[in-house]
């Protein structure tokens, strides 16, 4: 009887929801689980791939990717998958290609969270129109994303070393600058 009771106590502690692991810091987590060498300035120059934002240091690029992933509140597993997709995209690009790493990451996050929204964005058919009596209000993608992402998510900064002298830009500004919205 005591043996069964001990096993039951162990199971209660093991499956008790109060005992949980803290979510990892994505920045350091991705460094361990991703092949960041493909994001280095040397790799990109050797393969003649132009990226935005350009950073010589792959750790800075991973940090920027983690800012986007954090903003979308993706799980650690999904963060690894999206980061691996970004890296695989870069590895499979022909010489002379150009890519916006943060936009690609943003789009992959949106695809993971809401594939219908992703399809609307990439097809250029994103439009939200509200009819309020005689007035129509059009909501553009930047406004939509302001409400789509929790406010605290876009308070972290993106680093851009070689382009703007280490200027830091808020994530929401990055999304707007990437021409996701019709002007």
Number of strands: 6
Q: Into which percent range does the helicity of residues fall?
A: 40-55%
Radius of gyration: 21 Å
Report the sheet-strand fraction.
5-15%
- Uncertain ranges: 162-183
Order of helical and strand elements? HHHEHHEHHEEHEEH
Distance between the termini: 73 Å
Strand order of the largest sheet: 1-2
Number of helices: 9
Q: What characteristic shape results from the CA principal axes? A: flat
Mean pLDDT, all residues: 76
Largest pleated sheet: 2 strands, parallel
Class by alpha and beta content: alpha+beta
Plain-language structure description:
The protein has helices at 2-15, 26-33, 41-46, 58-71, 76-91, 101-113, 115-123, 141-148, 171-177; strands at 50-52, 98-100, 128-132, 135-139, 157-160, 167-170. The chain contains 9 helices and 6 strands; from the N terminus they run H-H-H-E-H-H-E-H-H-E-E-H-E-E-H. With 183 residues, it is α+β, with helices and mostly antiparallel strands. Strands 1-2 form a two-stranded parallel ribbon. It starts with a helix and ends in a 6-residue tail after the last helix.
Concise summary:
It is built from nine helices and six strands, in the order H-H-H-E-H-H-E-H-H-E-E-H-E-E-H. It has helices at about 1-15, 25-35, 40-45, 60-70, 75-90, 100-115, 115-125, 140-150, 170-175; strands spanning about 50, 100, 130, 135-140, 155-160, 165-170.
């Amino acid at each position: 009887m005591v043996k069964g009771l001990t096993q039951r106590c162990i199971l209660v502690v093991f499956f008790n929801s109060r005992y949980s692991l803290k979510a990892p810091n994505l920045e350091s987590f991705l460094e361990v689980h991703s092949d960041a060498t493909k994001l280095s300035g040397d790799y990109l120059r050797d393969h003649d791939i132009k990226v935005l934002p350009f950073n010589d240091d792959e750790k800075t690029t991973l940090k920027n990717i983690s800012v986007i992933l954090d903003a979308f509140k993706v799980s650690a597993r999904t963060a690894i998958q999206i980061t691996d997709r970004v890296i695989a995209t870069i590895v499979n690009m022909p010489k002379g290609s150009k890519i916006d790493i943060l936009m690609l990451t943003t789009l992959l996050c949106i695809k993971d969270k809401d594939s219908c929204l992703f399809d609307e964005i990439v097809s250029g058919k994103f439009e939200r129109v509200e009819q309020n009596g005689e007035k129509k209000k059009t909501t553009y993608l930047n406004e939509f994303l302001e409400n789509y992402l929790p406010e605290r998510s876009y308070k972290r900064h993106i680093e851009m070393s070689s382009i703007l002298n280490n200027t830091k830009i808020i994530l929401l500004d990055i999304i707007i600058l990437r021409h996701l919205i019709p002007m």
